[in-house]
Amino acid sequence: QVQLVESGGGLVQAGGSLRLSCAPSGRAINNYAMGWIRQAPGKEREFVTVSNRSGGTTYYADSVKGRFTISRDTAMNTVYLQMNSLKVEDTAVYYCAAGEAFYSETYYTRGGDFGMEYWGKGTLVTVSS
Predict the structure, then answer these.
(1) Which has the least CB within 10 A, 28, 73, 77, 114?
(2) Residue 74 carries which DSSP code?
């Protein structure tokens, strides 16, 4: 069983930056597709980004393209989400997730389980105006 632990959430002003971290316990990140999904208050979970096992292929939601970057540090066994130019509408609980398989971009953006078998408990990001 893979346990994912997120960190790095908090309160930031619009236009600011935050970096989220996710470290899976017991398994190496290069065994999984790794991604971030978020859920804003009163809304359904929304795909943010995902990378394949090597990190060589990444997909992003249109709403975060050019502002968010997913990356992996295999030495630290950690996945990061760098969030720049944050907007009030980015306020949400951000979940780190891992999947055994890597799917098409369309698959991830359709919702549902987002192709992920393992989920962290989430970290809250609040962007103030």
Answers:
(1) 28
(2) T
> Distances from the Cα of 19 to the Cαs of 86, 113, 117, 123, in angstroms?
11, 24, 23, 11
Contact between 100 and 64 under an 8 Å Cβ cutoff? The reply is no
Rounded CA separation 21/5 (Å): 8
Q: What is the CA radius of gyration of the chain?
A: 13
Contacts of 92 (CB under 8 A, 6+ apart): 38, 39, 40, 41, 43, 46, 124, 125
Question: What does the alpha-carbon distance between residue 32 and residue 44 come to, in Å, rounded to a whole number?
Answer: 24
pLDDT digits (tens, 9 = 90+) for 13-52: 999 999 999 999 888 999 999 999 999 999 999 999 999 9
Average pLDDT over residues 75-102: 97
